[in-house]
Amino acid sequence: MKSFGRREFLLGASGSMMALPWLELNAATNKQAAHPLRFASFYSPMGFVRDHFFPKQGNQDFLSMPTLSPLRTVGDKVNLITGLYRVNVRGTDVHNQASSCYLSSQDPQGQLKSPYPMDRTLDHLIADQVSHRTPIRSLELNCNSFKDLKESIYLDNISWYAPEHVATSMKDPRQVYRRLFKTRASDKDITDLALADANHFKRNLNPQDKHKLDEYFESVREIERQIERLNQYYRSHEKSEMQEPGEGPMTRGEYIRLMGKLLVVALQSNLTHVATFMLAPERWGSPQQYHELKFTKSHHGLTHGQSNEDVKKFLVQVDHFYVSLFAEFLEQLDAVQEGEGTLLDHSIVTLGSGLGDGEHHTMNELPIVMAGSANGRLKTGGMVHCPEETPLANLWLLQAQLMGTGLKRFADSTGPLDRLLI
Known about the structure:
By secondary structure, the chain is α/β, with parallel strands linked by helices. It is built from 11 helices and 13 strands. The chain has one domain: Alkaline Phosphatase, subunit A, CATH 3.40.720. The protein is 33% helix and 14% strand. The strands form 4 sheets. Strands 3-6-1-11-12-2-13 form a 7-stranded mixed β-sheet, sandwiched between helices. Strands 4-5 form a two-stranded antiparallel ribbon. Strand 9 and strand 10 form a beta hairpin. Helix 5 runs parallel beside helix 8. It is globular.
């Protein structure tokens, strides 16, 4: 029986692709084939409330912490890493550093054409090595719905090709969808084209593969339906600017969930193996409407008022909200079967922040959660305690090596964080 490679679905003059998920047919014809390893880095701004995130000394159950409790559903595939830090360059804006330097951890004494310790970020060093496997080199996603973009670009981007050369992120789900599923030569859905070709060989698949293929296309169809609802809103609001805060076509949670779903499908179908995802921008001055939490607050303002218990309650809700959405993303990855494992098992997914404490602007004890076993090479389901002031770059170096870059050093690393290895 013929094996159908994912890269065989080249459709349209532009070469746009609707790739397929892992099917048992692939496993039957090539049992020794390794699952491609995916990389995704999520960023949450301005740290987390520490006493709701980190367990007290002696308590190893990090999933009992209020902020991290949503991760219980995938708890056996998640690690909390403690002791990581980044150099804080005094005399420059700490928030600009926190986001723009998060994935570079560059030596602040280096000869860089930037006011911040920036360099080519981890995601692009990885993409340099693995992008030949996918039609899309990397995805940079950002759930910043503000229209007033007067803040620094350093606060709104974690992905950089080089100092001062930003990898501009996509914020509109429609833009992401078009990049993933639309041809340039035609406005016809890639899904429709792919379904026609899929039906050509579907009769040769076993029942499990047929069901899996149906589920996959249904997930794409559901994204189409959500995008169409968004299109309908904009058709009736073409002449009006959507301001923050204010009512929009989606709630804050729906917006982030849709962006997350698009990323799941992109990783599942091997459209890309590298992605970054900002849950929100760093230190944005305007208030944010948190529809699900039923309030409108400035996240930055909340971090500086957390000594007040009433203010702190709001901030804890925001922290829990973002971790809950991250947990949903992990659950979706873990629901996708690939051979004997899941998409989450074949991934390295990190959630973190460039600040350890948003009130005092510390960069020690950074809040870092990592999920996925990297094809069974990583320990999961516990806490990994590192010595104080272990460079965050040690974790990035380990991830770069697992993704096949061959790097021996990354920024100010002192060695890969090998205590995570099995």
